[in-house]
Amino acid sequence: MDRFLKNCVYYGASRIGELPFVRARLAARAVIILFHEIQLDCRSELMTGTSVSLFDFSLNWLQREGWSIVSLDECLERLASNDRSRRYAVLTFDDGYRDNVSVALPILERRHAPFMVYVPTGAPTRSMQSWWLGLRKLFRSRDKVTIDALGRRFHCADFRSKMLALEEVIRWVHQDYRHAALLAPTFKQNDISLPALNEEYFLDERELGILARHPLVSIGGHTTSHAALPTLDKFLARAELVDNRGYLENLIQLPVRHLAYPYGDWGHREENLTNEAGFQTAVTTQQGRLNDNKVNRFALPRIGVYSRSGFMARMSGIIEAVQLLR
User: Fold this and answer.
1) CA torsion, points 44, 49, 54, 58, in degrees to nearest 10?
2) Which CATH number is 3-127+202-325 given?
């Protein structure tokens, strides 16, 4: 769907969701909210993260609408005890970006808002094949881009064409995550170093250890290499989970009980493997809220924050309700 049309749909849904009878009918008890980067200059990063203004807006909206921001552990305890005194929101950040500390943390400290950071081993060790960062640098820095594996040549001299081209290649990778490995020759031809981008964008081991001691912070797992688990055989998938948990617990000297599936990609096999690896919960990128205490703790939905109208529409439950009627 065209970005403008999608925003119009979200805006309409968000306004409908503000009606008192709709809010009462579709009210949820809890929600887990998904962020990645909190960027000071979204335009220079080709609109790939959440702006500070949108981040502030989402937190203000939660406060205004009476949502209490709590840790994931507290949220699940409240649901299990059938506590209906408040509505609860959990803030989560995937991948362990530096701006989660430099930009988001001061804002969250002012609000005394706890949050979860899900970290893949390859981010602080600089070994992760962060193809999305490589693509972003490629399109930011060049007006003509050839992706041989896709068979496409992009002419993108202006901001909009760069953003649309980047989105197209990212969609291609998401169609089959094995496509990501095919980008390596393109990165090499254009002198793009993924380890260098990891160093620039992700927290290192020392910084992660310090962050883990912050009273507002919980650290969760995100596998070793950020691989889509369903694309791996059972033994490799189990190793991705077990090794990541062991690495993080050894690094931060704290229990790591919660997981985020890379790309939100999972199935029943991944739920079982996550449980066997010692995790107590796992979050997805499936859009949805938590409505009762009978939740699948290894397939928890989240709501991503990509626009004001989209966030409000998702939080209202209108989009969710329409999807259930299909």
Assistant:
1) -170
2) 3.20.20.370
